[in-house]
Amino acid sequence: MSTLEDLKKITVVVADTGQFHELKKYSPQDATTNPSLILEAIKDPAYLPLLKETVKGKKDVYSAYMDLFIAFGVEILKFLPPNGRVSIEVDPKLSWDKDASIVFAHKIIDRFAKKGIGSEKILIKLASTYEGAEAARILERMGIHCNMTLLFSMAQASICADAGVTLISPFVGRITDFYKKEKGVTDFSPEDDPGVQSVRRIYSYLKKFGYKTQVMGASFRSSKQILALAGSDLLTIAPKFLEEMSQSQQAVPKKLDLEMAKNSDVSKLSLNQSSFEFLHNEDHGAAFLLSDGIRRFAKDLDTLLGIVAKEV
């Protein structure tokens, strides 16, 4: 049995890609996308026909870009099981605008509905700002499920769990990259990896205090990081690591479980907006990475809009 199949026994495996042709090979449960992944996909000639077919003749570039995201989502769902879900991201420039994020989320759901796809198949991705969490709180009450992305701190995890979101995606690799640079080191062992440690603490927090919100580790730099979080509710994994693990026979011991979480020393948080902002800002790595992540996604979205503009 491959390492990937062994991992699937204890963790739901999600594909982190917009390149849906990759999905059939690895049989993931769900798939996640974002502006950067869609931009990467349409640079591949294999996906140019979908781009051209989707946006040709559209009068509004921004609406055409939204249609492109939906088109990718529709294709991705064809490669997933009947209960599979695809995550589609709200415009990152709306990360601090609760009301506009809610409107955008409804536009995503409505566009999928016109393709005959129900909201149960969609996870709305929102940046883990305070406003993003509050938007998710309202959307979840409406039956629209949310996946909170760009999550780097316990403060972010706390407000998202208190909002009752379906899923949080704490990032690993970007935390690792930040502290490699800060500490002047080239690598961490999995047990000492700040990104791995962050997700383990967040998992322990949500499970110890009985939250229904699920934890999906994201943004990996190595398969070692992935396996160090085996037992997490879900893990979203890039195709290159899915391939690596499908070719390996390394056994996968469980690293996260409820018993471990219950015995952890994490303390309960109760945060309003001001206390959240302060606590999140105290984690200087998380504070930088959240704003940097939003900037990166926004930049890639602008590049994507430029490509779409040439095709409409």
Number of domains: 1
The CATH topology annotation reads as TIM Barrel
Determine the structural class based on helices, strands and strand pairing: alpha/beta
Topology as a string of helices (H) and strands (E): HEHEHHHEHEHEHEHHEHEHHHH
Shape: globular
Brief summary:
The chain is built from 15 helices and 8 strands. It has 312 residues and is an alpha/beta fold.
Structure report:
With 312 residues, the protein is α/β, with parallel strands linked by helices. The protein has helices spanning 3-8, 23-26, 35-42, 48-55, 61-78, 98-114, 130-141, 154-162, 173-183, 194-208, 223-227, 239-246, 258-262, 273-282, 284-311; strands spanning 12-16, 30-32, 86-89, 122-127, 146-151, 167-170, 214-217, 234-237. The radius of gyration is 19 Å and the shape is globular. The termini are far apart. The model has no long low-confidence stretch (mean pLDDT 97).
Which descriptors would you attach to this protein?
12% strand, 8-stranded parallel beta barrel, TIM Barrel, alpha/beta, 312 residues, 8 strands
Topology diagram in text:
Elements: H1 3-8, E1 12-16, H2 23-26, E2 30-32, H3 35-42, H4 48-55, H5 61-78, E3 86-89, H6 98-114, E4 122-127, H7 130-141, E5 146-151, H8 154-162, E6 167-170, H9 173-183, H10 194-208, E7 214-217, H11 223-227, E8 234-237, H12 239-246, H13 258-262, H14 273-282, H15 284-311
Parallel strand pairs: 1-2, 1-8, 2-3, 3-4, 4-5, 5-6, 6-7, 7-8
Helix pairs in contact: 3-15, 4-5, 5-15, 6-7, 7-8, 8-10, 8-14, 9-10
